[in-house]
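Following up on my earlier thread - several people asked me to post the actual chain instead of describing it. Fair enough. Here it is, all 424 residues.
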Amino acid sequence: METAAKLKGDVKDLALAEQGKRRIDWANQHMPVLQLIRKRFIKEQPLKGVRMSACLHVTSETANLAITLRDGGADVVLCASNPLSTQDDVAASLVKDYNIPTYAIKGEDNATYYAHIAAAIEHKPQITMDDGADLVTTLVTKHPDLVKGIIGGTEETTTGVIRLRAMAKDGTLKYPVIAVNDALTKHFFDNRYGTGQSTLDGVIRATNLLLAGLKLVVAGYGWCGRGVAMRAKGLGADVIVTEINPTKAIEAVMDGFRVMPMNEAAKIGDVFVTVTGNKSVLAHEHFEKMKDGAVISNSGHFNVEIDIPALEKLSSGKKAARPFVDEYSLKDGRKIYLLGDGRLINLAAAEGHPASVMDMSFANQALSSEYMVKHSKDLQNQVYAVPEHLDQQIAKLKLESMGVQIDKLTPEQEHYLASWNEGT
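Reply from S.P.:
Thanks for posting it. Predicted structure:
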């Protein structure tokens, strides 16, 4: 661990900065929408003087968001939202090359993780930017004196939005938050295409398994589950879906997948991926039924989706089989392989979502931050959707960057859609 002497932050090794800068530059080339927003931010300075604390996955894509916010005038501090998702070279470059205080080390223990969140809170933010709501919940519960200075916040992921809505319902959410996750240009694309590709990328990098012909069980058929199932099917896997929601279960069936309870899927699955946002999705009763050699992984935000303590109780021993692959020897002789300590496998063993899809997600973050600065006085202590006009603006810019054109309504069509008196 190395702490910058003059620059603020806590990163693994500042000597990694050169490599990190190259990765940041590469990601930037594939984030044209964020580039356009950054150019405008440099000119207009909509975040001038605003203190921002961001608790996000510290990747090359996130680096470009932090740089955009800084260039828009914000005073930004960044910490990790997951102990295994940090790209150490990127964190080093943010500190050394961009002078953005960054507190993140891949593999940091729980105490260090929360010490880094505390460092971001010490910044006394006016805007919080979260991925999983750990920053918000820590701030509200342990530093209530700082809440009065907060304008508002944004939240990146499904798990965080669920937590924040529960807080709002309980009256413990003390400032407005925009649910970036719920923007169409975020969850339609980031969750489906980003998670779909990057999750399987992480599983394959960790195991080098050929997915074709294997039975791959996807727990949860939300947007992330849809993406994983779709991409796994494309790679030749025999995909099985487990669900608790009847409507989503029907959709999975209609999409061509087998649907069954996890107790049944556990008996036949070769590879398991949890993407539910809930806890103990894979639990004691499932481990007891799994075949020898089953591979289990998670791509939901927290590692509670897999009941690791229960797996440990069933085991007589544990050893590292490969990087990010732990072999648990069960007392009856079977072996179960846990990937990435149950953390987000796409970030633990791979590089997370491709830059081109994070381009839209982080465009939503940047524009939502600007919106919050301008309109927070009109908002209550609730969770809000990204304003539709911003969502549409991002989609339009993305299409333009891809060289794709679409039709426009004619005046006659606009009149028809706005009227009621034309019938059969």
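The longest strand covers residues 315-322. That should answer part of your original question.
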